Amino acid sequence: MTSPLWTPRRWATSAVADVRPIRPEPEPVEFAHDSERRVAELLDSYGIAWEYEPRTFVLERDRVGNPRSAFTPDFYLPDYDLYLEVTTLRQSLVTRKNRKVRQLREQQPGVQVRILYQRDIERLFATHAA
Fold this sequence. Notes:
Number of domains: 1
Shape: globular
Mean pLDDT: 81
CATH architecture: 3-Layer(aba) Sandwich
Radius of gyration: 16 Å
CATH topology: Endonuclease, Chain A
CATH class: Alpha Beta
Low-confidence stretches: 10-17
Strand content: 15-25%
Structural class: alpha+beta
Strand order of the largest sheet: 3-6-7-8
């Protein structure tokens, strides 16, 4: 299921605590899932700058050097140097994502990545009424 195009409000803060748009007219983002759009709206509501799927991490390569396994986190929060992966999928797919996150942490311990599970997302929206 593909979410309709949504134009995010991306924000940046300066040292003097004024808030201004990063760019006046951000390009629309087509999210893979509606939960990603909702998380983006929540981040916007708190003025947290984000990028959608900005980087793919290659986790395994074949003998020739072609990627065999890769992981593309849903969001990058540059002010926190943190990647977020949003998952509301079946348990078998969640297990695969958990494995990829573990691999990434082992291979690149300096990369911070957090998974937001369905229960986490439900709590966020219940608490913050986004």
